[in-house]
Design the sequence.
């Protein structure tokens, strides 16, 4: 009687089997490396810097003198820059019953040092509002309209517009030297403008 036993594998066959398995593993690893997708690169572009406008100077408060037919006459008051005649009258308690408001421009913008006079109904002398000190009309270049700028000696429509364009782009004028930066204004014109312009 013969036993049906399998022959034991030879050492050479075992080595060959291991070699085939090793080659399969190495081939799979190489194939995996070859077929691996490229990494995704994300590029973040920061936003372009935006221009920051230069800070503008805060206008100082103004002081005006109120007289005439008001409830608190001959009063000196302090108001924010850009205030109007109506605000000055409100700060002195309003006008009296005999005030002639037809001769008062309530919408007029006040300047530092102005006098606001409210005439009475029976008052014959007319008083301009506001009253510039010394009787000279002062042009405030930082808020003047084109028409107001054109009242200055040597300032026509083109130069007046350049003054407005310059202050819009660069901020308020601080003194005569700053006004000299406007094209068309030179030492001779600055001398003519002395005492006729203000920078509040």
Sequence:
């Amino acid at each position: 009687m013969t036993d049906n036993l399998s022959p034991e594998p030879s050492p050479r066959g075992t080595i060959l089997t291991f070699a085939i398995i090793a080659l399969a593993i190495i081939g799979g690893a190489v194939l995996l490396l070859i077929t691996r997708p490229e990494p995704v690169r994300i590029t973040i572009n920061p936003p372009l810097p935006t221009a920051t406008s230069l800070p503008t100077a805060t206008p100082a408060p103004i002081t005006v003198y109120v007289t005439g037919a008001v409830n608190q006459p001959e009063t000196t008051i302090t108001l924010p820059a850009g205030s109007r005649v109506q605000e000055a009258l409100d700060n002195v308690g309003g006008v009296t019953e005999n005030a002639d408001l037809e001769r008062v421009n309530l919408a007029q913008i006040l300047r530092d040092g102005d006098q606001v006079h409210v005439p009475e109904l029976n008052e014959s002398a007319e008083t301009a509002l506001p009253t510039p000190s010394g009787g000279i009309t002062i042009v405030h270049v930082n808020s003047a309209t084109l028409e107001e700028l054109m009242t200055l000696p040597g300032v026509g429509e083109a130069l007046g517009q350049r003054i407005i364009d310059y202050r819009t782009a660069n901020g308020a004028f601080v003194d005569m030297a700053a006004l000299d930066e406007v094209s068309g204004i030179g030492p001779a014109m600055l001398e003519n403008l002395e005492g006729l312009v203000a920078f509040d």
Summary: Residues 41 and 76 are 71 Å apart (CA to CA). The chain has a mean pLDDT of 80. The domain at 139-198 is CATH 1.10.150.320 (DNA polymerase; domain 1).
